[in-house]
Write a structure and sequence with these properties.
By secondary structure, the chain is mainly α. Helix content is about 85%, strand content about 5%. It has eleven helices and two strands. It has a two-stranded antiparallel sheet with strand order 1-2.
């Protein structure tokens, strides 16, 4: 294996470990703090599950479909579709979070009366269900027929770009399933910030007005944090999609393979970055992180204390046994 391939594989493994550990911490933090009962945080948990699956399933699949194993054409195609699925789930969860924030700011009273945890769970489940037919469209016929026709002995060296056509990646995966949602989410967050800014400029009045101002400031902080997650997603994925467009439309100069691998690493790293953003930007998640950390430290101290007590008890017992033996010898 070449040095570049070894470095790429090691970086993928590192990113996968960070994805799994970080997003598992997000899921555990929100679950134990009961914040999951709030609609927005329920959707954040769904996004964290998708990012966790990127680490434990999509990234290993990406390494496998990089020309390392020999499989049947449709087995390779299935692995590639699984890799695409979790990315689409992330996009749909981001859209659901943006719509949830939009409703909370535009119709706050109706939102509190109608939107519940059950609704958010149904929306999260809908994101996963909708992502299945979108990501598995290549299995239904939109695949690279030339590779299928050139298959020898029903097996191929599994490579992503050999089974997934660039037309699917550009027109369907990028233009329809990524770029369009990004534009919609940008418009929604723009409306949210403009609405909050306009309401905050109103002159202060009675106590109810001050409570409304405090509510809007909290909404602005949370919307800012979630819009940062959206911005990082765009910055992580747009380079790879632009490279696919350059290769598909035969724009000169063509993108070197090394640069494409950097784009793949950058896209996968997005799933490992989100837990860090949550920790520094969202107070409830930060507090939940600290509670888990304190529990770990307290348990560690308790285990250490119990071990010390047990060792002291053992020493006392041994000393008493030695005293008894000495007395027996004297008698």
């Amino acid at each position: 294996m070449e040095a570049g391939a070894v470095i790429y594989t090691l970086l993928e493994v590192l990113i996968a470990v960070c994805c799994c550990l970080g997003n598992m911490l997000v899921i555990l933090a929100l679950w134990t703090s009961k914040s999951i009962q709030q609609p927005t945080f329920c959707l954040i948990v769904s996004l964290a599950v998708a990012d966790f699956m990127v680490g434990c399933v999509a990234i290993p699949a990406a390494v496998v479909v990089d020309g390392r194993v020999e499989t049947s054409f449709y087995s390779c195609l299935f692995l590639c579709c699984v890799e695409i699925q979790f990315v689409l789930v992330s996009v749909l969860c981001l859209v659901a979070i943006a719509v949830d924030r939009f409703l909370r700011v535009s119709v706050p009273l109706r939102y509190k009366r109608t939107v519940t945890q059950r609704h958010s769970l149904l929306v999260a489940a809908g994101c996963w269900l909708v992502a299945i037919p979108l990501s598995f469209a290549p299995m239904l016929g939109w695949h690279n027929h030339q590779t299928l026709s050139n298959t020898v002995n029903s097996t191929i060296i599994c490579k992503f770009i050999d089974v997934i056509p660039l037309s699917y990646l550009v027109y369907f995966n990028f233009f329809l399933c990524t770029l369009t949602p990004l534009l919609v989410m940008t418009a929604l967050y723009g409306y949210i910030f403009c609405t909050i800014r306009g309401n905050l400029r109103e002159r202060p009045g009675d106590g109810a007005h001050q409570q409304s101002q405090l509510y809007l400031k909290k909404e602005r902080e949370l919307a800012g944090s979630l819009s940062l997650v959206l911005a990082l997603f765009a910055l992580s994925w747009l380079p790879l999609h632009i490279m696919n467009c350059v290769n598909y439309f035969d724009v000169e100069p063509r993108v070197p393979p090394t640069v494409v691998y950097v784009g793949i690493l950058l896209s996968h790293a997005n799933s490992a970055v989100n837990p860090v953003v949550y920790a520094f930007k969202i107070d409830k998640i930060k507090t939940a992180y600290l509670k888990i950390w304190r529990r770990v430290i307290v348990r560690g101290k308790e285990n250490q204390g119990s071990q010390m007590n047990q060792s002291s008890d053992n020493d006392l017992t041994s000393n008493m046994n030695s005293v008894v033996k000495n007395q027996e010898r004297i008698i």
